[in-house]
Design a protein that fits this description.
disordered N terminus; 6 strands; globular; 251 residues
């Protein structure tokens, strides 16, 4: 086989031109003016699973798995059907369904304890230091979550994050859940910035895909080590903690 030197030279010049024209960021140079967080990259839901095991010994994992699946299915179904109920109602309804499906008994005090846990979530170990670094570096921060305002405010207080977020946004404002476009648009409206300047930070693969489809640059905090959803999108960055987020965003 012969190699055409002209083709090699042309290919090399094309590659060099592409590298020179590609956007680059110096280390320590922030890439985004603002970040919008889903709740769960910040708040750790594992205590709810531990509580479920306490309430339903030997069945806690089954309860929590079915409960979480139904939470999001009910939220999406209510959005599509135009039959909105806030996320605390959705959370309670999906808990009742999960327990009934497993033929278990849900006592009133147990239901109250499990639902109350959503009002007092604490942060993942890496979250608070990372958020404080972002805030001190001048990055504007917001929550954008399907949680109700009460769920967000309760966990913010429980975690000592009262003065960290500029905006605390519940999709309850538009009576629709992510990944509906009108839900993601709330972040753009709050900051008054082009969406290209706002990094969306997701916990779930479907949320990362939804935010990317909307047009946000997107970082997936893949704490569970899951594969990406097969929804025709790719996130701009991925890591298992907010430390990788800091590096990706140039902080």
């Amino acid at each position: 086989m012969t190699i055409d030197r002209r083709h090699v030279l042309q290919a090399g010049l094309s590659l060099t031109a592409g590298l020179l024209s590609a956007p680059t960021w110096a280390a320590g140079t922030p890439r985004f003016k603002a970040m919008v967080f889903d709740a769960f990259p910040v708040f750790d839901p594992r205590p709810i699973a531990a509580l479920a095991e306490t309430v339903f010994p030997g069945k806690g994992a089954e309860v929590i798995n079915l409960w979480r699946i139904r939470q999001f299915e009910y939220a999406w179904l209510r959005t599509v059907a135009g039959n909105y109920a806030d996320f605390m109602r959705v959370t309670e309804d999906s808990l009742v369904f999960a327990v009934k499906s497993l033929k278990l008994e849900l006592r009133g005090e147990h239901r109250d304890r499990l639902l109350k846990a959503y009002l007092e979530l604490k942060t993942w170990p890496d979250a608070t230091p990372a958020l404080l670094k972002l805030r001190s570096s001048g990055c504007r921060l917001a929550f954008l979550s399907n949680f109700t305002p009460q769920m967000l405010d309760g966990s913010i207080r429980a975690s000592g994050l009262d003065d960290v977020f500029e905006h605390v946004i519940s999709t309850d404002q538009v009576r629709a859940y992510k990944p509906a476009p009108q839900a993601y648009k709330l972040g753009v409206s709050a900051f008054g910035l082009p969406k290209e300047q706002i990094l969306f930070v997701a916990f779930a693969g479907w949320d990362a895909a939804g935010a990317k489809t909307f047009g946000y640059p997107t970082f997936w905090v893949n704490r569970l080590g899951l594969p990406p959803e097969e929804l025709g999108t790719m996130t701009d960055g991925e890591g298992s903690t907010l430390n990788e987020l800091l590096a990706f965003a140039g902080f």
